[in-house]
Amino acid sequence: MFTKTVFAVAAITIAGAVQAQVAPVRTILVPAPMRVMLGFGVVGGGDDLVTAQRTNGGSDTLKAGDGVIFSAGIDYRVNPAFSLQASAGYHRSQISADNGKVEFTRVPVELLGFYHFNENWRLGGGVRYVSKPTLKGSGVANMPDFEFNSTTGGVIEAEYLLGRNWGFQLRYVHETLKADGYRDTNADQAGLGVRYYF
Predict the structure, then answer these.
(1) Which residues sit opposite 8 in a β-bridge?
(2) Which of 43, 116, 134, 173 has an alpha carbon within 20 to 30 A of 90's alpha carbon?
(3) Does the global pTM surpass 0.85?
(4) Are strands 34-44 and 100-116 parallel, antiparallel or unpaired?
């Protein structure tokens, strides 16, 4: 009787140990608060800068807000509801042909703040500083480089975050270009973008 009782207690103890070993472990992944990001965007809008006439009778117009943007920066998650983002980029647009081209370039630096509605959607805005917006031509469109004054504008952006690494943006930028002796040029732009977060 004593032997059976001891065996029964031992069996219960072993069974409890096995259950403890196979109990599921819940893992919670917490995103890193600071991440490096790379971005690409396409935007358009603003006043006409240059209109080029083609030999076939057609024409192309370069607007002040047009172009593609390559950017890199840092995204910092302050808390579950708020994040900050700082980036620098290269904004470029052009009209090109076999015998020449006109291009408009600038270097934008942005500081944005975002409110997170959930883990997928966030809305934010901030300040955009643009350094040395420059219009230049080559070939038959050759001309002295024309440089606008550096300027500051505003940004509004909505972003959809897909998983930990991808973000897709819809954005609007308010920007005015100035040059001494010339009227102000509206460079407002709207567009789409994508970012990869490391």
Answers:
(1) none
(2) 116
(3) no
(4) unpaired
Structure tokens at 145: 């480089």
> In this structure, which amino acid lies at residue 169?
Q
Backbone angles phi, psi at 136, to 5 degrees: -145, 155
Query: Tens-of-pLDDT digits for all 198 residues of the chain?
Result: 434 433 343 443 434 444 445 555 554 445 579 999 999 999 999 999 988 777 777 788 999 999 999 999 999 999 999 999 999 999 999 998 778 889 999 999 999 999 999 999 999 999 999 998 999 988 877 888 999 999 999 999 999 999 999 999 999 999 999 999 899 999 999 999 999 999
Measured CA to CA, the distance from residue 192 to residue 58 in angstroms comes to: 28
